[in-house]
# Entry
Amino acid sequence: MNLSIFNFERIISTVEKWVSLPAGSLSTPLSGYTISARFFIYPLIGLIILIIVFRLVRRLKTSWRNVVRAVLVLLILRIILFYNPVSWALYALILDTDDIGWRQRDIIKYELKRYLDKPPQVNYLAVGTSQTGAVYRNWARSHDDFVRFYLSGFGLPDLMLYRDFILSYHPRCLLLWLSEFDIAHAPAFDAIKIAPPQWGYWPTLFGRIHAVPFWDQADSALIEMLVGEFFPEYKYSFVFKGITGKLFGRNKALARRRITTIPDGESLETQLEILTTSLELKNVTFNLSFLKDFLQFVTKRDISVVIVEGQYNPIAYTPKNLDLNKIVRQRLKKLSSEFKDVYFVSRGAITEFTEDQYRDAYHVKTEEGLHFTEQLLNYLQSNVIE
Amino acid sequence: MLFNSLQFIAFFIIVYSLYLILNHRWQNYMLLVASYIFYGSWNWKFLFLILISTILDYICGLKIYQETDQKRKKLYLLLSIAGNLTILGFFKYFNFFVHDLQLLLHQFGFSTHPVVLHIILPVGISFYTFQTMSYTIDVYRGELVPTRRFFDLALFVAFFPQLVAGPIERAKHLLPQILHPRLITREKVTQGLWLIYWGFFLKIFVADNLARIVDRVFLDTGSFNGAEVLLGLYAFAFQILGDFAGYSSIAIGLARLMGIDIMTNFLFPYFVTNPRKFWMNWHISLSTWLRDYLYIPLGGNRRGNLITYRNLFITMLLGGLWHGAAWTFVFWGIYQALILIIYRLVSPVFPRFHWDGILLRIWIFIKIIFFFHVICAGWLIFRAQSLEQMYKMAGSVLVNFSPATPTSYYYVCQIIFYTWLLLAVQIFQKRGKDVLSIQAIPVFLRLPLLLIIYYALMMWGEFGANEFIYFQF
# Structure
């Protein structure tokens, strides 16, 4: 029985008009999705049950009654604030990257997408950073069987942290856009706090991070993540800090002082600086350990993986980065060969982008991405996937 | 190990679990070990300083008690005070005095070799030094019988909830509670939990959020206009209240969970109308310490006005210097002395209005607002990095005052948002004349209050485990 009764795109488009957002600013990324009725029904049932229990606890002793009621109110508020699509749609409408940051904004979209019906047949699911989003953008918009899941600053640990969501698309083939840009990049531990709950994977995650020389940086992130799993109010605090910041005119106030609110460097200079300073050989083993976990996880479920060697603006191809590229390419090739359904496509096999095909240091122009995707899929069909 | 860190929470759970299963004697041994671990987590080397103070005061306390000759009693008292103040003076003030002496000599044409030692300030040294000094002074005054149990005295000096930032307890109040078995009642546990919860709210929600405004204003003073600087001062007024009162509340709450009563350190300092009342509400453990062990021995207010003013001046000057080795603290102490003296001069001649009802309330409100600004002027001296910065900021408030900027609007909103609940609860507490009066409110009001605090902490709390301001003292 198909419970999909709401055309989410239409609802969002209407809301966009109400709140005077530019047309498509929210609906375009969510185009083609429908929101399932069950995601309205479940929270509603939850609320009704909690309210009934609230009434029933009158029979308890006063002290216990108060405690139980406090917990019930907490749970009711959790459903209202976090466990329904309407709240997340509202947060997505209210908050922009200037208010909360790129990654946080992507998390709101991700939370919202969890409530959306996925396309029935996904041949290709491209997973990765905003680079992935840019390369495959135009192709994905015109092909229903090709979907992207990307987050700003998506790191290799995120492959495992978001594994269940990736699986929820039931993809036939995963496309990973990986190079030294990702694998030699210092891990961004602050994103761990806002990742999905990891109940079962937590000990492995703890072990992985503890085994590498980042423990001092990861310590608080892991604790925050663990706390966040029990207290969504804490985990999603960025939403409420963002709302009050917006209400209080934070951006206007800070703009005068020229203090950036965006964690990701947006100027070309900043991006280049990151590319020339933050890629280090010491990060490779750490990141690859998560990639290996992920490849094991997906190949067990008969999903093939294509690791497309990622690219970035050639002006950042410094001698150091080119050296790292050689090492990372070898490691990726070796890792791919360990799995039956994992393939590696090197840069030279398709098209190598030139400087003028980039809109900044990281992201290719979308029209160039479209051409690239077409070539890549042709290549895959003739060389890799039968 | 900060109270607002997960390490401390884990530490306290272990300590409290052991505390509940041990008998009184072993409770004390365990608490002493825990206190030393707590302090050693900052720098274990400085545990020797605590130990030296403890041994010195243990011996001096017994000698003072045993001696019959008054002169020898006094000698042991002086030995104790000199020993404690030497440690405090060396670690806290050595570089300050040497540096300023060199500057002074330089003014007169003498060049000297810089003799600056790389001394790290032991955390909480001012607090435990004053606390341990109260022991020998009380023994000397005959108000306390010294203990022969060394480990119990050591626990009195190092009791971890109030070791590094007070309240500065008196031996005659805390020591008997250490020496005798303690009773943990349901009432004490609920009070303790509330005090801890409220303390975390004050620190994590109020103080650490306002710190962002304060740090920005004091870091880049030149780019803020007068209104913004004034808002920065308001923010600091509530930051330091939240920070210090928060720490005290947690400390008192932790002790109360163990059945130990520690003195109240903060009441409602911004709801007062004069400096005398301010010091009866602010850092009460320090102000009463200074009153009992410095101001009254100097003669207090019993020897005429001039001597009273002199005593006030000396007391507040040393009170300012107690906070840190910097000229800003010296000036802050002088400022506090001056407003106390001016108040004593002005209050008898100030017209008294025999109003009641709404007029009286408006008049009190005006006085509270006026005096709040007097206090904020003091906080400017206290928080400024240098005298130059202090003049610059004061000038900015007086000359370059343009309130209608986006930054002012943002700061006003933030200050209201982060302080409204604190003020509302304090008004309620003031009416009930008790910081724990909040526990007496009906459940239908108490539960929403607890939930609001929970959401304030979780959604807007700054969980960066920021240090408490008073640790530096």
Remarks:
- Chain B has a mean pLDDT of 88.
- Chain B touches chain A through 25 residues (CB under 8 Å).
